């Protein structure tokens, strides 16, 4: 990419070609706005190569085996160890072998211009792109610049961590060998999913949780079920401990000293200790923002701290809801807002208008693909207590459902919904058990649609399915 002394003008510049950036660009292009998409790594982003796609490719065989070993009539061989080589090869295919040719072809087919290089803001509506060969291209946006750079791993401030060569989510989802012993620091979604996957692939996993439970942002019963199953699978789960020190030994092992004085040896160590915005080196200082900060955006995804309504922050980088699906939802909103403003219109008012990302506050769904699965949307009981929300809690044992036992004999799981007693609508739902991910959309519709409880009685679940839990929850509530 030679240095371009002229400035190329577009209606919209999108920085970051992950699923979020691609969706913003697709929406603005479809609205007739000339759009350029800039990416410094692989088109398709973190989700396609180092997160959602490869992690689920690692997890799916483990979950299928867990279901199969409980089902009478299946070959007992399904309970044997997974073929790690075959699973890793499948994971490679799902990650496109870390090549983005197909994504680049799609971008072109959608009529979007694509530049590979590192983009930096250079003032109001100005962006410079440094290409792989060191050349620079200057861009100017007539209407909008959308920052969709996502997030990256937040590593702890541990002395000598660089020399430790730790795994982050990227190494955990792209490793080509199964480590004999894997220490995982952090018990959130990444920590428990990777513990599930690598234990099933043959690693001896030790999961280290700083707090008293795994999945601390979800209902307590969900974490308890996941912990029980991890231990049954052979993983070691320890609570109330942190890494005080760690180093690579001359033999390549990781020697870990814990905060309680204990010691641990592992072949690899994965830090799953949170996420940070990818905003350090994107020129935020040129528009009066602090490099490295989350880009606070309002419900139209506009960065209100920058005058002129031209800068947007969409997806993980704004810190609103760090899920790919939520970022894509925001991208649809942002694209519609940009198109409206380009036509000289104001974004439509209203809590659930097509120009407001209201679901970021009311109905954020998430699935943890462990054994058992955990699916949650809206409030949890802990969050309601912390924020002073008055809710009615209704629980039901999923193991009492006929459909659950068709899914897996000896099924263990639990469901909880939270009701707003004044409005008589569901404001939160959590399910933990095999196959519960498929319950999540119905819960999300109930919350986003503010469906009255009396109307839910008329949504008849098919028999025998796990979705019968909706009827059982309503019956439990009416009998209490």
UniProtKB/TrEMBL annotation:
Chain ranges of the FAD/NAD(P)-binding domain: 10-325
Keywords in alphabetical order: FAD, Flavoprotein, NAD, Nucleotide-binding
Protein name: Dihydrolipoamide dehydrogenase
Every Pyridine nucleotide-disulphide oxidoreductase dimerisation domain range: 364-470
Residues noted as binding NAD(+) in the record, renumbered to the chain: 186-193, 274
GO molecular function, one term: dihydrolipoyl dehydrogenase (NADH) activity
Disulfide bond entries: 47-52
Domain of life: Bacteria
Record-stated family: Belongs to the class-I pyridine nucleotide-disulfide oxidoreductase family.
Cofactor section: FAD
Binding sites annotated in the UniProt record for FAD: 56, 149-151, 316
PANTHER family hit by this protein: DIHYDROLIPOYL DEHYDROGENASE, MITOCHONDRIAL (PTHR22912:SF151), DISULFIDE OXIDOREDUCTASE (PTHR22912)
Keyword check for Cell membrane: no
GO biological process, alphabetically ordered: 2-oxoglutarate metabolic process
Cofactor binding comment, as recorded: Binds 1 FAD per subunit.
């Amino acid at each position: 990419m030679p240095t371009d002394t002229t400035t190329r003008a577009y209606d919209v510049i999108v920085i970051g070609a992950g699923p979020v950036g691609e969706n913003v660009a697709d929406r603005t292009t479809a609205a007739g706005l000339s759009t350029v998409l800039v990416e410094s790594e692989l088109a398709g982003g973190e989700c396609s190569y180092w997160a959602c796609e490869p992690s689920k490719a690692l997890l799916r065989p483990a979950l299928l085996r867990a279901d199969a070993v409980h089902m009478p009539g299946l070959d007992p061989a399904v309970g044997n160890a997974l073929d790690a080589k075959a699973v890793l090869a499948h994971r490679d295919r799902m990650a496109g072998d870390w090549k983005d040719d197909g994504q680049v072809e799609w971008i072109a087919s959608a009529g979007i211009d694509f530049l590979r290089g590192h983009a930096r803001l250079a003032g109001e509506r100005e962006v410079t792109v440094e290409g792989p060969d060191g050349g620079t291209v200057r861009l100017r946006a007539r209407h909008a610049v959308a920052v969709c750079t996502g997030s990256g791993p937040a590593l702890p401030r541990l002395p000598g961590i660089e020399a430790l060569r730790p795994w982050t989510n990227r190494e955990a989802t792209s490793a080509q060998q199964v480590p004999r012993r894997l220490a995982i620091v952090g018990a959130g979604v990444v920590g428990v999913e990777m513990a599930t996957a690598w234990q099933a692939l043959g690693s001896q996993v030790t999961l280290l949780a700083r707090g008293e439970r795994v999945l601390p942002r979800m209902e307590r019963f969900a974490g308890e079920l996941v912990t029980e199953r991890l231990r049954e699978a052979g993983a070691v789960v320890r609570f109330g401990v942190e890494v005080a020190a760690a180093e690579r030994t001359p033999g390549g092992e990781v020697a870990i000293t814990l905060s309680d004085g204990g010691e641990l040896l592992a072949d690899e160590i994965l830090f799953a200790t949170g996420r940070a915005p990818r905003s350090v080196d994107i020129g935020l200082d040129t528009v009066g923002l602090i490099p490295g900060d989350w880009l606070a955006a309002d419900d139209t995804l506009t960065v209100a701290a920058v005058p002129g309504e031209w800068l947007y922050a969409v997806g993980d980088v704004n810190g609103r809801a760090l899920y790919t699906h939520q970022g894509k939802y925001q991208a649809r909103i942002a694209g519609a807002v940009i198109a409206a403003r380009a036509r000289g219109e104001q974004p439509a008012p209203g809590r659930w208008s097509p120009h407001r990302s209201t679901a970021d506050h009311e109905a954020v769904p998430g699935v943890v693909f462990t054994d058992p699965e955990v699916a949650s949307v809206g409030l949890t009981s802990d969050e309601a207590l912390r924020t002073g929300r008055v809710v009615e809690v209704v629980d039901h044992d999923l193991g009492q459902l006929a459909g659950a036992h068709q899914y897996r004999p000896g099924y263990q799981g639990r469901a909880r919904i939270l009701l707003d007693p004044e409005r008589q609508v569901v404001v939160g739902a959590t399910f933990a058990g095999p196959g519960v991910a498929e319950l999540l959309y119905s819960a999300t519709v109930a919350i986003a649609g503010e469906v009255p409880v009396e109307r839910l009685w008329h949504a008849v679940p098919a028999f025998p399915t796990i979705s019968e839990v909706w009827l059982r929850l309503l019956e439990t509530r009416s009998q209490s």
